[in-house]
Amino acid sequence: MVETEELQLLINGCVKNDRASQEKLYKQFYLPLFSLCRRFFQNDHEAIESVNDGMLKVFEKVGSYRADKGRFFNWMYTIVRNTAVDKFRASVVIPTGDMEEVVETEGVGANPVEWLESKELSLLFDQLSPAPRGICNLFYIEGYAIREIADRLRVSTGTVRWHLSESRKKLKPIIDNYVNQ
């Protein structure tokens, strides 16, 4: 994969720990990375903190980036996303006790929000408490499988299914109202 010359110059500058290159790179990708992190957290402060923590990791690891393995943005996005998921996991208590294994008639894979735009999803998921919001983001937007979410958050697959089911129940009237407007 070939990056643009300007981006390659910024990457090279970051490898050399050049503050101006780091600042330019940060500003160039801030909005999409903030959008990513904002999906995990209800307030902007936590999202900004996740972007900043993730970008620090990017700057620390930029020398290990290999263009032949993929695009730079995808590499950076993964680092920032993983940082946000780790922060989310550390900041949210995901209830696991006394939950029934959810048996779903519509199937866990049914995506009731697939037709919504990303901005609309962010507003919709803001209606949820932190644990379900993060799980819905990982499942519906990031495309993680239930097992991957459970492993990542260190909870059971039943807990992930329960949160997805409860989220659908809570969001259904909101979506119905939105559709019927």
Please describe what this structure looks like.
With 181 residues, the chain is mostly helical. It has two domains: 5-91, Rna Polymerase Sigma Factor, Chain: A; 118-179, Orthogonal Bundle (Arc Repressor Mutant, subunit A). It contains eight helices and no strands. Helix 1 crosses helix 2. The chain is elongated, with a radius of gyration of 18 Å.
Helix residue percentage: 55-70%
End-to-end gap: 45 Å
Helix and strand run: HHHHHHHH
Contiguous helical run count: 8
Strand content: under 5%
- The helix/strand class is mainly alpha
Uncertain runs with pLDDT below 50, 5 residues or more? 98-110
Task: Give the biggest sheet.
Answer: none
Could you give me the name of the CATH homologous superfamily of the largest domain? Answer: RNA polymerase sigma factor, region 2, helix turn helix motif
Instruction: Indicate the CATH architecture of the largest domain.
Output: Orthogonal Bundle
Topology-level CATH name of the largest domain: Rna Polymerase Sigma Factor, Chain: A
Coarse shape: elongated
From the alpha carbons, calculate the radius of gyration and give it in angstroms: 18 Å
Keywords: Sigma factor, Transcription, Transcription regulation
Protein name: RNA polymerase sigma factor
Organism: Puia dinghuensis
Domain RNA polymerase sigma factor 70 region 4 type: 120-171
